[in-house]
Amino acid sequence: MSVTDELLANNRAYAAQFSGPLPLPPAEQVAVVACMDARIDVYRVLGLQEGEAHVIRNAGGVVTEDEIRSLAISQRLLGTREIILIHHTDCGMLTFTDDDFKRSIQQDVGVKPAWAAEAFGDLEEDVRQSVARIVGNPFLPVKDSVRGFVFDVATGELTEVQL
Amino acid sequence: MSVTDELLANNRAYAAQFSGPLPLPPAEQVAVVACMDARIDVYRVLGLQEGEAHVIRNAGGVVTEDEIRSLAISQRLLGTREIILIHHTDCGMLTFTDDDFKRSIQQDVGVKPAWAAEAFGDLEEDVRQSVARIVGNPFLPVKDSVRGFVFDVATGELTEVQL
């Protein structure tokens, strides 16, 4: 049995005790942008209930064009007004460079990605960079509360990054 | 008090009962790509524990360049071998068109986004499109198990999309 099949069996247990549906717009009007890291269960880390916040995640928790797209839809069509950015300690993005990663792909398949891998060497600097990409973007209308944090995978604590 | 501050207070309670750290590579070697919708608590929907799976999320749960980037890092550097795609009923992406959304931004701020908003009119078709973008991409080495699902926000159930 694949892991996917095991997780589908879990879903049947989840659905058996499910009560819904909740409304589409996030009740707390918040959007979270976090790293995809398996150790960050965003709902539990922030004490979120289902239906309260949009959760956007990718490798690093960085802000690229696709996060701008998601945040523009979140703010303009679904009414969110605060943004929480979460990077974390022991992140995979700290362990390689864009150049090396892309060269390894080129050596493997013959084609080098035209995109940036978005690796970074300093967590707090990259949180500030992610905030800066949001603040500087013309498509996001609500920028009063854009705050960045580092999640400590050893303690479970969020520490705010001073901008 | 902002919602962000309330969620930070929740985090202090979470950290107080936290035990870590777990290893960096996802224990179940799975990556999930799901919609950012607030009602989808991916860990609970799939019965995932912290540390088991990468979780990638955006507006729609679609596969754009940034999801390819995240999946390439997930597979090539952190060893994931299965991909689970999750779209859902009552999705905001079913309620608008790219043209209208981008025109409204242009009317608001004078600049039209150069990116696609990735709205869609048919859930199952868009799940198949997301799978196709993964299967057709040269940078992802492991494509044996790429399966797509629709999450029903009324029942909590995942239904597999036939490819």
Automatic annotation (TrEMBL), chains A, B:
User: EC class of this enzyme?
Assistant: lyase
Which keywords appear in this protein's UniProt record, sorted alphabetically? Metal-binding, Zinc
For this chain's record, the cofactor binding note is:
Binds 1 zinc ion per subunit.
Q: Return the InterPro entries for the record.
A: Carbonic_anhydrase, Carbonic_anhydrase_sf
Q: Which Gene3D superfamilies match?
A: Carbonic anhydrase
Q: Which reaction does it catalyse?
A: hydrogencarbonate + H(+) = CO2 + H2O
The family this protein is said to belong to: Belongs to the beta-class carbonic anhydrase family.
Protein name stated in the entry = carbonic anhydrase
